[in-house]
DNA sequence: ACTTAGCACTCAAACTACCTGAGTGCTAAA
DNA sequence: TTTAGCACTCAGGTAGTTTGAGTGCTAAGT
């Protein structure tokens, strides 16, 4: 059953006002706010209907109305206007995104912080793998006779390294041999396949080189492991306290505690959203997690190629400004997708400028 | 002027009780608590003296006493007993420290989290350089004709890498040449010296290779930059809300906001403590930062060799359990120092076991 | 010179009663 | 269907009261 235009207008006004003030709104205020040329009594009747239908709630008999989760849902689905970001805002986002290192986890972390700062809500960000990562290649670099650097590259073109120092000496040819061995035996294997393979190799390998192999392979395992269980970065949890719905320290505490359980966030919130495109909004009781039953979550996923996807999300009171948050979140998510799509700067012609 | 033994005993009881309960304590309760065989009236007289001397405070005329910052200071300096960690606790710390990747920033982050979890206070951790870091060597690894990995090692033996993809082709000899060039021109230079050097090289270098050089060098600059302005990792800020002194949301908010200003923490708190060994305790007004005037900070520094030092710290109410916190913090700091002192596992003899 | 019992005093916190006013629901007329 | 009018509700604020933990002081005891 469709609501009448007037009811929608009123509902929308209630939601938008409540988003701003966090206070129940009454018939008289709505009269002005909606611009409808009807008396407050008429609005009262409409409000009674909307309450009956479950779109609005009354904190107590003699207070104004506030939107119910169902009301927010209708608002988000039908009444909310797409928010366009201002030029400044897009610029700010772009700058922040393009600055600094392009190390995957740093960028993700950074993106989370930025979103939080931009929206004034706590935010989180993570990356996940659609398929199981494998090692694509090994390189060993001799530093001096007692240490070398292992460089490991995954099939997702993520590169990690580690410096190893040894109590014994090591020569370039030895290292060469080792590299070949690693690249023949362990490339293309997933995390689980590495251990058995290592055992198989153990039987053929000579004494001291086995020790080295297992060192490097366990490093590779660490890398794969950290990719499979990718970290969740949270930022701006203190913003929770900005909002009157969490003035009750107990509530704030619960939500904060939840936000620091990174595992839970990843599995129950983010992963389900990995494959949905665009922004996804979860309002109050629509959330599975008990701790989020009276908060809302806005999620956006991004695609960084090579089978890796990520999710970035914002948590706030049900009263949060969905339009703005969704717009900003989507923009950042798009930005991330593009960022990881573009190649490095081309080898340019020699620089001519010589300013200070 | 020295306090009498009895006064000290009473002061100590007040501090220790207040640390537990966060409530003012009166003469009668102290009578039992101290085990002194005197009447409450006598204790009242002593309390009056201690208050006069500035070691105790009265929230209001008819409440018990609480320790003043000066009281805490005396307690910390003279009355506090060195806390010994239980076997479980040391084991817990050791396990956490030795597990997982030994990537510098990850470990530091991890250490901060652990301390926070261990003490139930917010914690932070950072590493700082005593001297300016320089690049020690460059290595370039050809991946395929259009991409290569740059591996950069600093004089502190920190190794970082980055994958570059190019729109043009690249050959092994080219890369070799480039490596030599980088290693002759840019090794041993600090961040500031890199740009001028780059310009100088620009004049001699051929067209397309200059583009590549500047790519790699700017990556090296990013690395040096991130080392000089090393990140501050904070963890467990939500623990603030556990303590009754921050039930007032306003206060909690201020402290949290402060804790997220990583720059400020680094400069005003951590750096000054870099060179002090052992645990350092800053009580309430002893803190320089306005935001910390009624909180306390416990700091411990650690040494990870190669001119790098770090600080790890805990923030809490003045009423925090200094003995426990200082003990745990020092233990973790020592652990970190040792962790970075030990070399890698030796290349062992070939494994014999074959259990599942 | 210290210790102690006794007692009047203080004051935050908890409880009560009361008032106010924004906002409602309902009715009866337009 | 809309509107004016009115009785009704109830959270939140204000003011007065009670309670009790804890004090400071005094005067007597060791």
Look at the structure and give the CATH class of the largest domain in chain A.
Answer: Alpha Beta
Helix content of chain A: 40-55%
Which protein chains make the most extensive interface, counting residues with beta carbons within 8 Å of the other chain's beta carbons?
A-B, 60 and 61 residues
Largest sheet of chain A: 5 strands, antiparallel
Domain tally of chain A = 3
CATH fold-level assignment of the largest domain in chain A: Beta-Lactamase
What's the helix-strand series of chain A?
A: HHHEEHHHEEEEHHHEHHEEEH
CATH homologous superfamily name of the largest domain in chain A?
GAF domain
Beginning-to-end CA distance, first to last residue of chain A: 70 Å
Alpha-beta classification of chain A? alpha+beta
Outline type of chain A: elongated
Strand content of chain A: 15-25%
Secondary-structure arrangement, i.e. CATH architecture of the largest domain in chain A? 2-Layer Sandwich
Output the number of helix runs of chain A.
Answer: 12
Overall pLDDT confidence of chain A: 89
Low-confidence runs of chain A (pLDDT<50, min 5 residues)? Answer: 346-356
Radius of gyration of chain A: 27 Å
* Quaternary structure classification: homodimer
Number of strands of chain A: 10
Summarize the structure.
Chain A has 356 residues and is of the alpha+beta class. In chain A, 48% of the residues lie in helices and 18% in strands. The longest helix of chain A has 22 residues.
């Amino acid at each position: 059953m469709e609501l009448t235009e007037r009811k929608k207008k009123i509902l929308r006004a209630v939601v938008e006002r409540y988003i701003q003030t966090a206070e129940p709104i009454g018939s008289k205020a709505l009269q002005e706010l909606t611009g409808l040329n009807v008396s407050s009594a008429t609005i009262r009747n409409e409000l009674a209907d909307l309450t009956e239908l479950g779109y609005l709630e009354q904190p107590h008999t003699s207070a104004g109305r506030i939107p119910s989760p169902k009301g927010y849902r209708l608002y988000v689905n039908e009444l909310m206007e797409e928010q366009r970001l201002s030029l400044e805002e897009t610029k700010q986002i772009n700058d922040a995104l393009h600055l600094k290192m392009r190390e995957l986890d740093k960028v993700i972390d950074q993106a989370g912080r930025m979103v939080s700062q931009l929206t004034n809500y706590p935010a989180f960000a993570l990356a996940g793998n659609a398929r199981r990562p494998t090692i694509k290649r090994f390189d060993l670099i001799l530093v001096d006779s007692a240490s070398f650097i292992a460089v490991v590259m995954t099939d997702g073109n993520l590169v990690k390294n580690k410096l190893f120092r040894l109590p014994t000496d090591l020569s370039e040819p030895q290292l060469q041999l080792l590299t070949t061995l690693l690249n023949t035996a362990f490339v293309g294997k997933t995390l689980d396949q590495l251990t058995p393979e290592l055992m198989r190799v153990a039987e053929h390998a000579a004494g001291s080189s086995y020790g080295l192999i297992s060192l490097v392979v366990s490093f590779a395992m660490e890398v794969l492991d950290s990719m499979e269980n990718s970290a969740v970065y949270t930022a701006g949890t203190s913003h929770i306290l900005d909002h009157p719905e969490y003035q009750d320290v107990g509530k704030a505490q619960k939500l904060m505690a939840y936000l620091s359980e990174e595992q839970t966030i990843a599995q129950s919130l983010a992963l389900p959203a990995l494959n949905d495109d665009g922004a996804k909004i979860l309002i109050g009781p629509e959330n599975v997690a008990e701790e989020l039953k009276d908060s809302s979550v806005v999620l956006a996923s991004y695609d960084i190629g090579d089978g890796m996807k990520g999710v970035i999300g914002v948590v706030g009171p049900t009263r949060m400004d969905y339009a703005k948050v969704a717009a900003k979140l989507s923009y950042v998510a798009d930005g991330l997708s593009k960022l990881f799509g573009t190649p490095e700067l081309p080898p340019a012609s020699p620089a001519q400028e010589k300013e200070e």
